[in-house]
Amino acid sequence: MSKPLNVGMIGYGFMGRAHSNAYRRVNNFFDLKYHPVLKAACARSADQIKVFADQWGYESIETDWRKLIERKDIDVVDICVPNNLHSEIALACAAAGKMILCEKPLAMNGPEALKMVEAVEKAGVANMVWYNYRRVPAVSLAKQLIDEGRLGRIFHYRSQFLQDWTIKSDLPQGGNGLWRLDVEAAGSGVSGDLLAHCIDTALWLNGPITTLNAMTETFVKERMHNLTGKVEKVGIDDACIFMGRHANGSLCVFESTRYARGHKALYTLEINGENASIQWDLHDLHRLQYFDYRDDSIIRGWHSIHVSDGDQPYMSKWWVPGLQIGYEHSFVHQVADFIEGISNGKPAMPDFRDAYHTQLVLDAVLASAKKHEWLDVQQG
Amino acid sequence: MSKPLNVGMIGYGFMGRAHSNAYRRVNNFFDLKYHPVLKAACARSADQIKVFADQWGYESIETDWRKLIERKDIDVVDICVPNNLHSEIALACAAAGKMILCEKPLAMNGPEALKMVEAVEKAGVANMVWYNYRRVPAVSLAKQLIDEGRLGRIFHYRSQFLQDWTIKSDLPQGGNGLWRLDVEAAGSGVSGDLLAHCIDTALWLNGPITTLNAMTETFVKERMHNLTGKVEKVGIDDACIFMGRHANGSLCVFESTRYARGHKALYTLEINGENASIQWDLHDLHRLQYFDYRDDSIIRGWHSIHVSDGDQPYMSKWWVPGLQIGYEHSFVHQVADFIEGISNGKPAMPDFRDAYHTQLVLDAVLASAKKHEWLDVQQG
Amino acid sequence: MSKPLNVGMIGYGFMGRAHSNAYRRVNNFFDLKYHPVLKAACARSADQIKVFADQWGYESIETDWRKLIERKDIDVVDICVPNNLHSEIALACAAAGKMILCEKPLAMNGPEALKMVEAVEKAGVANMVWYNYRRVPAVSLAKQLIDEGRLGRIFHYRSQFLQDWTIKSDLPQGGNGLWRLDVEAAGSGVSGDLLAHCIDTALWLNGPITTLNAMTETFVKERMHNLTGKVEKVGIDDACIFMGRHANGSLCVFESTRYARGHKALYTLEINGENASIQWDLHDLHRLQYFDYRDDSIIRGWHSIHVSDGDQPYMSKWWVPGLQIGYEHSFVHQVADFIEGISNGKPAMPDFRDAYHTQLVLDAVLASAKKHEWLDVQQG
Amino acid sequence: MSKPLNVGMIGYGFMGRAHSNAYRRVNNFFDLKYHPVLKAACARSADQIKVFADQWGYESIETDWRKLIERKDIDVVDICVPNNLHSEIALACAAAGKMILCEKPLAMNGPEALKMVEAVEKAGVANMVWYNYRRVPAVSLAKQLIDEGRLGRIFHYRSQFLQDWTIKSDLPQGGNGLWRLDVEAAGSGVSGDLLAHCIDTALWLNGPITTLNAMTETFVKERMHNLTGKVEKVGIDDACIFMGRHANGSLCVFESTRYARGHKALYTLEINGENASIQWDLHDLHRLQYFDYRDDSIIRGWHSIHVSDGDQPYMSKWWVPGLQIGYEHSFVHQVADFIEGISNGKPAMPDFRDAYHTQLVLDAVLASAKKHEWLDVQQG
Q1: CATH of segment(s) D135-376
Q2: Alpha-carbon gap, residue A219 to A239, rounded angstroms
Q3: How far away is chain B from the Cα of C165, in angstroms, using its nearest Cα?
Q4: Which residue of A has its CA nearest to C322?
Q5: pLDDT value at position B380?
Q6: Chain B contacts of C257, Cβ < 8 Å?
Q7: Are D367 and D240 contacting, i.e. CB atoms less than 8 angstroms apart?
């Protein structure tokens, strides 16, 4: 029989839903030593958090996150609030001895992230960051193929995260659904929101990025601000491109934007090795493209792998070959792995320290874009 | 506040899991007047059903389906057992005044299905059959586009369901995971299992099939039987092809097989109209291909629609544009629609009568294949 | 140094252009013992054939095909006229000892084709039929993979040829560009025009078809006739579907139509074997899709082969890997192979006898559609 | 009747073949006022140029390009030799009043290119550079859609040219087939060879690039040199990435490499506008991907346009809808347009001046990569 793992959720937005769904589903599909119990949900607005709690079956609500953290019946706190609030909450959780699952990006910048890392390591609490795309089965399979050494020497890594939802210039900034457009809350624009995912996966698949050169752009310079009611300067980056080098000698290039008409959420990645290459994209997330030069030459071509067989990552837990899973399952897998980690003492990644490295790359990206020069990435 | 809808599940196999998942999730995503309560799960083996019940949170178990049906605390019975058991259970449910959700195909043949139809209609109990693919958002969108009249006069309908999992000749037949290979339990092979889905969708999208000509084949003639321990003749069809005509004058062609190497579960459909055409396949179920001759000629081409926007069927309930859902969601949608139907008095389809029409097409298919001649389809 | 091979072309339509292009290009890319010389082009209209001859560099013109055949300076006659004229011309060519390259389908029916076969075999003249798709490199590669035994036991063959250019009901029938809609000139509709290609390739790749059942449809029943100026009954089939069995025990299904909105010339084929499967389509003719179950299971998927490498059929003659060739090249390859055949005494296929087998399948298709019953295919 | 246009070809490699094919074919498909006559082919080796001349039907050979240029029976000189020889030959051609078709990149650098521009403009001779990809019909269609204003404000341009043919470290450098690996002959590596195409198309489709930042890499540092027989340092760039800005405010990112395993010659381009976006790639060159936000929202998706209809660029000259053309046709189109240009006094692009702009971008790319800093592009 599994033991309860009491969850306190702070936030109730898109990610609050995605995580809640994961907590509720994980034990139906995975055999684990713990089962999450939705103990409490917290937000400043009692009305709104009540609706959310009812929808998802949280047992209670709180309107002050400090109260939530003080509760003895909470084992793990899930931080699903705007980026500028992560640090303070996480430090308090660590002090209170709570396990922490924190939304990405971990912090507003590297130094802030480092404090969080130090706090959780000092407190000895389990910690993880919601870079969920690592656990899309096709991406996990990519990692497996790389770890098996199938690719040989790596020459290139490239990744994009392309969206188009902010093209309308009359879209306001700030407030509940739109805090990602408000630099005060988000810290940055597409770099922290989208590039952060690309960087996390890149570091995981291809190792450290050592040096880079970045550019950013804000296409729409002013937007109505929901919190002030006034047209205000837009402080976030709408697009960001950077090129650089990994420690293994490969070149990399990254791009993220919310102005790529036609792409809803096109997160792509590609890695080119001496012997084999891999491609993936989020719009067909259940497939992996794999090319192996060692195939017989006359039948050599990209394999379009429908990642739904029982011997492919996570898929034995779900349906049968040919039946695809989707976006939300990556969160279920992350919860499963988190629980495995606290069960067997081998913490699941990315933990805060891992996510701190992503933060250091982001810091270098934003600094390089500002200074218009190449920068070495601090290696944490 | 929603009211409880007490579910009694008979069976615990692949479909038992898929349905249980749907019951557990539906209220997190849909605002409904009822919420399913997993009251009891039933199977002959107490050990096995106990494991299943624990995994999915059923409150109790039964080992005799008649007991389950007698229970007053059960509102709706879900029949997830081999095809040859559907009828007896459904008739008993109707007699007991229970609502019924029955796996497909509804029955072993048309006459048996008709009795079930008459029973539920006489009893006045809500009833539905799990032809879940109608509620894949892309397929629902296809229906919407057809109903809007975008296609014009229809010339062609074609559909396939291709698998490859039974190619191994040392795969046995019969017993728990393999009853689909045992003609006693399944009634037929790919025709009842796979073609039934193709036919259900075809009737829904393109209206009645009036006449047809079919062929079947059993590639592996003998297999070890798990229930007898002996090598026995295989009674099911391994492959089935038929061609025919719809009442609207269009031609149709269907094929299903478990011997199409490379296709795990490739359910495809295409409809060609005077003005527009539509294609869909299950291996990329979140996409719909749409061609419209009325597009400007120089930019005319198949639209690859990533069905994940809020104005596309069911998608406002899930995540954000670009984030795909998968196979299991079709069952969630079906439960949601079933509950809507019993809430507002407009029963969701396909009900038993609807599924009876599919059964009549299947009867014609099998009879035609046996007689080697064209047959008119009885129109129920 | 290569020797001249004097070509006499009868006809100047679409195929006349495609063949002329092939004759003019072949020696630039292939090292051959003969080089075609465009000696004479022939058609009833002197004006029209003059324009054609000038465009393509024919040295002379004729307005009576009998005159052309009588000329001593003609080695090979290319028959590019409507189907109903093939036989008479071919018989005369054989009698005159000319080599013959005849457009497909070879004849109006099997018996007519048989006479042509007997004539060329008696005369001992080289003969070939323009089933050009065999020599699309990807299709040739498919043949190679099958001949290497990579597929194992074959279960399924399926093929389509889908077009949409006759959907307009005000399109007339008959006359120069539209003789394919006139049953007098064409003999049949899509079956002789499109299905014939599918059948030729199927027999080549998968061996004889032994039995079949077909249906045809004429969606637009009357069209203005260009030759009479009156609205007349349409005698051709607009669509044709048939299913059947190959001698090797595999099932087959074929469909051709000119009413599949969205498909310009979508010729597809697929073959499913125990170990491997192959797919191809004309809209991306430079690619072959190949699935091999013997690939490592975690990287198993359809290989998308860009057929442009030097070790793939014909491709060493063209450009470099990645640079695709197109439709017209299949004719160049056919001329090259024809010349190879007359150089080395191993005639290139399909010759008249080979094409006669396709004709017998077509006869069975049309007879079955008329009689509404299964028919065995005469095996010539 | 068309008049002769006497062509003198210098070189006989891959491009010599591609151009010769274009000269021989153009008048079969295009109605033009001139028809190319293959008057003479020139190379230092009499043996080798003789074989080439025979293969392609050149009337005579020369072994000294100065002799070729002196000949009065030559109207136009085609320069198909390594990059370091372009300038001297072109200057001599201009002095001799010959029209010039020069392979790309035009020159070793901007200043050299400028002298060539000044020479041809002073001499008043027709001149063009073989940036052939502009005339792939799908790319020409992209230009048309952009010129029609369908895209609105442009936000992003991105382009790649990915190959994998030099990954083998034992591939030598220098000499006939491998001068592209020899920095003396080529001037640069992938930047001049591959990126040059990307830049030419980008300037054509999206206007000037004003500023950029580049990086290059040489993965294999030493290779046997065919001309010296010794292992020598490799002077070319194996990979090049740059990011920058167009004058219209859009961001751009470019990448080219010969170390992207799995990509034979994957030239891609994408442009994202406010209203619409376009994608294209060379591995399926007959297709254009087009997304238009103004499509009805429920059927919005990328149009996969099979560019083979008569109303699409150049396609009325070839076959029928659905039948694709390939790589070599882009050269035929370029010859046709060159002849149109000299016929009607509206010179076809890109002429030397146009190609000079590409050279200036390349200069900035190489300088930026060397200096590790942002550079403004000289605007010629």
Answers
A1: 3.30.360.10
A2: 8
A3: 11
A4: A301
A5: 82
A6: 155-156, 251, 272
A7: no
Residue D288: φ, ψ to 5°: -125, 135
Q: What is the DSSP string of A184-236?
A: HHHSSSHIIIIIHHHHHHHHHHH--EEEEEEEEE-SS-EEEBTTTSSEEE--S
With a CB cutoff of 8 Å and minimum separation 6, the contacts of A115 are: A87, A91
Three-state DSSP string of C246-265: ECCCCEEEEEEECCCCCCCC
Residues of chain B positioned with their CB less than 8 A from the CB of A56: 28
Asked: is C134-376 a CATH 3.30.360.10 domain? The reply is yes
For residue D278, give the amino acid letter.
I
- Residue C201, C-beta contacts closer than 8 angstroms, at least 6 positions apart: C131, C133, C134, C139, C159, C269
The domain segmentation of chain C, as residue ranges, is: 3-132, 134-376
pTM: 0.98
Asked whether A368 and A242 are in contact (CB, 8 A), the reply is: yes
Residues 6+ positions from D287 with CB-CB distance below 8 Å: B301, C284, D138, D280, D304, D305, D306, D307
Distance from C-alpha of C285 to C-alpha of C22, rounded to nearest angstrom: 18
Q: How far apart are CA B18 and CA B108, in angstroms?
A: 22
Which residues on chain D are in Cβ contact (under 8 Å) with B138? none
Interface test with C, best of D193, D261, D327, D329 (most C CBs within 10 A): D327
pLDDT in tens, D191-246: 999 999 999 999 999 999 999 999 999 999 999 999 999 999 999 999 999 999 99
Query: Are the beta carbons of C254 and C206 closer than 8 angstroms?
Result: no
Q: In this predicted model, what pLDDT tens digit does every residue of A176-185 receive, in sequence order? A: 779 999 999 9
| DSSP secondary structure string for all residues of C298-326 | GG--EEEEE--STTSTTGGGSS-TT----
**Who's near C105: CB < 8 A, 6+ residues apart?**
C83, C187, C192, C193, C196, C355, C358, C359, C362
List the one residue out of A285, A305, B322 whose CA is nearest residue D301.
B322
Q: What is the DSSP string of C331-379?
A: HHHHHHHHHHHHHHS---S--HHHHHHHHHHHHHHHHHHHHTB-EEPP-
8 Å CB contact between C213 and C368: yes
Tell me if the bond preceding C350 is cis, omega within 30° of 0.
yes
Which of these, B286, B302, B355, B378, lies nearest to B104 by C-alpha position? B355
Do A6 and A37 form a contact (C-beta atoms < 8 A)? yes
- The 10s digit of each residue's pLDDT in D257-284 is 999 999 999 999 999 999 999 999 999 9
Comparing CA positions, the residue from C220, C230, C147, C216 lying closest to residue C181 is: C220
CA B37, CA B31: separation in Å to the nearest integer?
15
Give A360's contacts (C-beta < 8 A, 6+ positions apart).
A110, A113, A377, A378, A379, A380
Q: Which CATH class is domain A3-132?
A: alpha beta
H/E stretch holding A349 reads none
| Contact assessment for residue B181 and residue B347, using Cβ atoms and an 8 Å cutoff | no
B328: DSSP letter: T
3-state DSSP percent of chain B in helix, strand and coil, to 5: 40, 25, 35
Cα–Cα distance measured from residue A217 to residue C301, given in angstroms and rounded to the nearest whole number: 40
Q: And the tokens for A345?
A: 């003492």
| Partners of residue A263 in chain B, C-beta under 8 Å | 322
Structure tokens at B324: 């795909």
Whether residues A260 and D155 touch (CB distance < 8 A) is answered with yes
Count of alpha carbons within 13 angstroms of residue B204, beta-carbon side: 27
Secondary structure letter of residue B373 according to DSSP: B
Looking at chain B, the number of H-run helices and the number of E-run strands are: 11, 17
d(CA D373, CA A210): 17
Amino acid at residue number B294: R
Nearest CA to D163 out of D39, D258, D253 is that of: D258
CA–CA distance, A212 with A208 (Å, rounded to integer): 11
